[in-house]
Amino acid sequence: MTAASELRQIGIFLFPGVEELDAVGPWEVLGYWTRFFPEDGYTVATFSPDGGRVECAKGLVIEAEYSFADAPEWEVLLHPGGDGTRTMLEDEARLDWVREQRESVPLMTSVCTGALVYAAAGLLRGRPATTYRPSLGRLAELDPSIEVRPDDRFVDDGDVITSAGVSAGIDMALYLVSRLSSPERAAEVKEGIQYAPRPPV
């Protein structure tokens, strides 16, 4: 059993207007993994600029566990998308914060339009990446050097992983479990959360 103080930290960033499933989908995967397989040595938490209550894009309110001021050192940072990312693209203070995270966090990941924030901050320069399908053109506009992958569910470029829109965050999170632990563990988590999509339409 890994001691709590030795657990590697995965942080899911919350902000006003975050798309619910962008954050909660990966949380379900990562929360199940870290709760039921603590021997793998990871834990997951949410954080926001000020901590406390965050209202999401469709009205769900989530209580962030940490603020910027008291957050632990992240091993993995997950930046969701949502309407709240629109203002971030021209918010130099927020983009500087993203750049600072790039300097200290070994693995930066995004869901949906979180990739646009990474692009605006310069994190995706010369890299392959993807995002929410209607925002693929905007991704290319923000940084023409990006190799946009329109058909990929997620793109692993070593220390940066981007994923497509909304529900794609679940697939990316399962991939994270596979990468950080093993494919066998990811299969156990997938079975545990009964993730076997069979859309009716």
Automatic annotation (TrEMBL):
Residues 9-177 form the DJ-1/PfpI domain. InterPro entries: Class_I_gatase-like, DJ-1/PfpI, INH-QAR. SUPFAM superfamilies: Class I glutamine amidotransferase-like. Pfam families: DJ-1_PfpI. This is DJ-1/PfpI family protein. It comes from Actinopolyspora xinjiangensis.
